[in-house]
């Protein structure tokens, strides 16, 4: 019986499947590639993996437009391969989380196709948000909402008789119609989906757009219609964070606990929750709702000790106060890579950005709770900022024509070995092309080189994970802030383990007293240079 609540302090590695490892030579990563990479992840020391969507999909948003929630897209393999992956992960003691997308589906989903072929007012259309347009001829959208990926949140269809018809809601792209969760068929269908994958042995789900699902029942105009598109976040209070969504998570939690009661293995629900405050975030992780929800405020905090202390303190007070643990993240498949975000957006990143990213990683791994690592962060990969327009696939670029905040640059396939593309990513013939081009400088970040260099990002992460699993002071628990010089942040875990970060603004180096355990960069005896983090067992003089 697995009675340990493993998720409370777990470190989970996000696998963006199409960019992890290609086993078939088509230039797209797949489930067999993930299975082949499991020993690498075991060596790194993570507790589990989160797989990006691999379901059948036309790939308008790289799998977040799902046409069948209970199968595998041939691009990535099949259910038999998925079962092999699950068995291999189980042998290695690696948990497996699936990415589930309950807010919207693909415009090619059978139920949406049925809705298009059915008349207004039909049960098929009631599964979605089909509404008559405004104006005398219905030619204006039903309200003024904007989609997060640009443009209006409504598309008008042509009815079966050829006349202009109703409009349907899509808070992302027209290829991703939003489900109507007020229709009882939708929660019943997702109950079936959850049980399908739980019966195949998965350890839980990462829930896409977990603050979405319900819209204001009257679909009124927004006071700030461009807010979602402007911020690229779910901030329209009429389209997100409706109170009814909490009933969904209570039911999903009960389903997970039903399976846990059978065999003692805890199943995890971790939500992508974008809400304005930590206090609202905490409502999603109450004891009968989601186990955890990603805390994005650390990711978005500027490189500043006061900003970091503020968001960490708020999370510990509001989220940990619910009985859950904070789920820390520094990056994911939707964000600029950490090395680039903390430095200058040059093609190969900057030394300053790399130093800060190393320090931030050590800080995150020392915080109480769980942590998620996006693939490639353990290699120190920079954002690829100079992809040509003709290879970009992000629907944000297609919808807006702007390169601002597009996500292709963090999704370039991983480099595994060698001096030239495809760097071992694909098993195809020489010259096989990954689905996004890898820059030549990726040779510096290849996995084989990282493993051989004890000064690399990879060894920092591996050593940090090993210490985290072996030291009782780390993982779940509390922290106590320590008095520090300006520009330095330090806290105590347990009775004697100190983590400190010099943000590079301290007028003098911060003293380090005690037994050093790990540092993100070279540390002369007794000092902590700028843009460096360190762990040490205090001799008591720091406390």
Summarize the structure.
With 543 residues, the chain is of the alpha/beta class. It has 14 helices and 18 strands.
Protein described:
By secondary structure, the protein is α/β, with parallel strands linked by helices. Helices cover 27% and strands 15% of the residues. It contains 14 helices and 18 strands. The chain has helices at 31-44, 79-92, 110-117, 185-198, 227-231, 245-263, 278-283, 297-300, 305-318, 338-341, 351-366, 395-400, 447-452, 457-470; strands at residues 11-15, 48-51, 95-100, 130-131, 154-158, 164-169, 204-207, 268-271, 292-295, 327-329, 370-374, 480-481, 488-493, 497-502, 510-511, 514-519, 527-528, 532-538. The strands form 4 sheets. Strands 1-2-3-7-8-9-10-11 form an 8-stranded parallel β-barrel. Helix 1 runs parallel beside helix 2, helix 4 (185-198) packs parallel to helix 6 and helix 11 runs parallel beside helix 14 (457-470). 49% of the residues are buried.
């Amino acid at each position: 019986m697995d009675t340990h609540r493993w998720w409370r302090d777990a470190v989970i590695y996000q696998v963006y499947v199409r960019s992890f490892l290609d086993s078939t030579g088509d230039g797209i990563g797949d489930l067999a590639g993930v299975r082949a990479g499991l020993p690498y992840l075991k060596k790194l020391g993570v507790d589990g993996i989160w797989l990006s969507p691999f379901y059948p999909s036309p790939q308008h948003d790289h799998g977040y437009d799902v046409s069948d929630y209970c199968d595998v897209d041939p691009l990535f393999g099949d259910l038999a391969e998925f079962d092999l992956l699950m068995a291999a992960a189980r042998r290695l003691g690696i948990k497996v989380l699936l990415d589930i997308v309950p807010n919207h589906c693909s415009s090619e989903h059978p139920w949406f196709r049925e809705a298009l072929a059915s008349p207004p007012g039909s049960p098929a259309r009631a599964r979605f948000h089909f509404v008559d347009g405004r104006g005398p001829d219905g030619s204006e959208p039903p309200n003024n909402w904007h989609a997060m990926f640009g443009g209006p949140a409504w598309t008008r269809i042509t009815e079966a008789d050829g006349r202009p018809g109703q409009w349907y809601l899509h808070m992302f792209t027209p290829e991703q119609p939003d489900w109507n969760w007020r229709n009882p068929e939708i929660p019943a269908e997702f109950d079936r989906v959850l049980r399908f994958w739980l019966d195949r042995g998965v350890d839980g789900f990462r829930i896409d757009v977990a603050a979405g699902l319900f819209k204001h029942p009257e679909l009124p105009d927004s006071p700030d219609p461009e807010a979602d598109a402007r911020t690229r976040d779910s901030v329209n209070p009429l389209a997100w964070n409706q109170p009814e969504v909490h009933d969904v998570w209570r039911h999903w939690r009960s389903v997970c606990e039903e399976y846990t009661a059978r065999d003692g293995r805890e199943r995890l629900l971790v939500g992508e929750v974008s809400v304005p405050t930590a206090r609202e975030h905490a409502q999603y992780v109450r004891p009968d709702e989601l186990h955890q929800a990603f805390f994005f405020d650390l990711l978005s905090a500027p490189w500043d000790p006061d900003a970091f202390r503020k968001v960490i303190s708020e999370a510990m007070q509001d989220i940990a106060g619910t009985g859950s643990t904070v789920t820390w993240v520094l990056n994911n498949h939707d964000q600029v890579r950490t090395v680039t975000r903390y430095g200058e957006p040059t093609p190969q990143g900057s030394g300053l950005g790399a130093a800060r990213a190393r320090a931030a990683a050590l800080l995150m791994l020392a915080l109480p709770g769980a942590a998620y690592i996006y693939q490639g962060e353990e290699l120190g990969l920079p954002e690829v900022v100079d992809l040509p327009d003709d290879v970009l696939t992000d629907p944000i670029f297609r919808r807006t024509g702007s390169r601002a905040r597009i996500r292709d640059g963090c999704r370039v396939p991983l480099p595994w070995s060698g001096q030239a593309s495809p760097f071992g990513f694909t098993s195809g013939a020489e010259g096989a092309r990954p689905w996004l081009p890898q820059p030549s400088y990726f040779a510096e970040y290849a996995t084989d080189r990282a493993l051989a260099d004890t000064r690399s990002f990879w060894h920092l992460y591996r050593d940090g994970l090993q210490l985290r699993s072996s030291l009782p002071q780390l993982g779940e628990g509390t922290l106590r802030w320590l008095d520090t010089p300006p520009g330095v942040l330090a806290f105590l875990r347990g009775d004697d383990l100190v983590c400190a970060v010099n943000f590079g603004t301290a007028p003098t180096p911060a003293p380090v007293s005690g037994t050093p355990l790990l540092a993100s960069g070279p540390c002369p005896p007794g000092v902590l240079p700028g843009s460096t983090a360190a762990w040490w067992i205090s001799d008591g003089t720091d406390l």
